[in-house]
Amino acid sequence: MTKAKREGHDTHARRRGQGELEAQVLAALRQAPGARTAGWVQERLGGDLAYTTVITILTRLHVKGAVSRERVGRSFEWTAVADEAGLAALRMRKVLDGEADRGAVLASFVTALSPHDERLLRDLLAQDPTEGED
Known about the structure:
By secondary structure, this protein is mainly alpha-helical. The chain has seven helices and two strands. A hairpin with a 2-residue loop joins strand 1 and strand 2. Helix 2 crosses helix 3 (38-45), helix 2 (20-31) packs across helix 4 and helix 3 packs across helix 4 (51-64).
């Protein structure tokens, strides 16, 4: 055990929460004025994030449909196509798609909502899906 650990000091960077890094990468791309490279994203996030980690996160976001990519030379340029709410919705959809009894999952989800969130969900479901279209 190191002296720092014995004294209760952790010298390592804190571990990010699940999805936190994806949200940070997506936020960086959303602030970009156009498509950007993984190196650009890495610079914006700063810290000790490895280039390969950025590529991995961008690839995961691409598989989820949250970013698009276009080959430029031997690399890709990446563009955000979802916001943080969209990314959260994609995660929720993935969980739902992985369950056999969708009805039970949705019923359990709705009964666990706060009264405010339940009203909000009901209002959203009651909206005309063509509302706002031209």
